[in-house]
């Protein structure tokens, strides 16, 4: 019954936004309350869950999205985006540019949280799209597929790292197996799938449209790349430092602070104000105006993401994810397929890949202990399942829709299908590896 209620709520949500033309944030709030009532969440706890969901979602994303928007807008306004696009196009040509962006997304996606990587890479995608008049979704989807795969499959991302610990798996072996499985998943869901959606029209956010500038006005190549990718370099460096000095208590607090994505984004934005602003002939006042405009541009995106977080929290607090997982525990299927299915169904119902992965882990652990299944492969199977069919109750769905300015229908045809391909290909890779290693 719980699954039926969740499906009804999702259908009503889609109808409110598409047919009723209701603002997505308002629609999320309405459906969050409705879902709470139908799932018999205590009345006094419904708005508490809504507020907690909004707070938890925005608490981890608001600073990153706002600071990322500031950096992205300055990169566009300063001409750095134009410079980067020119260099990439000259190096790879239009034919291989998509692959270059995909590889970039995979490399930076290993140390970066998905939200951070998305915000950092979208301006780069759009700069290429605008300057060379290429299809936005066709060019951008492979890079975002790479980011999604690293988020769901590979430690040190939250869900796979937590699963490794819960299953007593080996972090290094899981990462190695994950890399083997991730590469074909990204290629199939990225460049190969994107060939089928070339005709989908997208008009990305105007805030990232780089102004055409004279070549003499552009910042230098090194300055453009280093400033634009500074958060990536800093996050990678702090991740490596944490790995080598994690056992040293005297450094742990400092390393934890300097490796926080929010702080790294803040440092990057401040440095960019000088390297792409002051050093490029702009006044500090004009740079701050650019930053202010960037925050205004992403305001509605933040509210929509907050709304999806409210619905996710109501579904989580109602216990629906636990009910679904318990019902699936009795399925007579291979443990790796069972783990994938449990994570996938919870993901579709609740919306969060992390919640889906961690909920499945608690219920599959007793079954895993009684079987001979490789724990590292179970981590990857659940990770793949947790990416299945992202749709309207997932913040990532709305980030893609709003940044690329797509309809819900086209977002499902592109983003949701891409995530499903990633999940199915991931399971196929896990089963193939399982047959090889015995």
TrEMBL record:
InterPro entries: Glcn_transporter. It is found in: Cell membrane. GO terms for molecular function: gluconate transmembrane transporter activity. Keywords: Cell membrane, Membrane, Transmembrane, Transmembrane helix, Transport. Pfam families: GntP_permease. Belongs to the GntP permease family. NCBIfam families: gntP. This is Gluconate transporter.
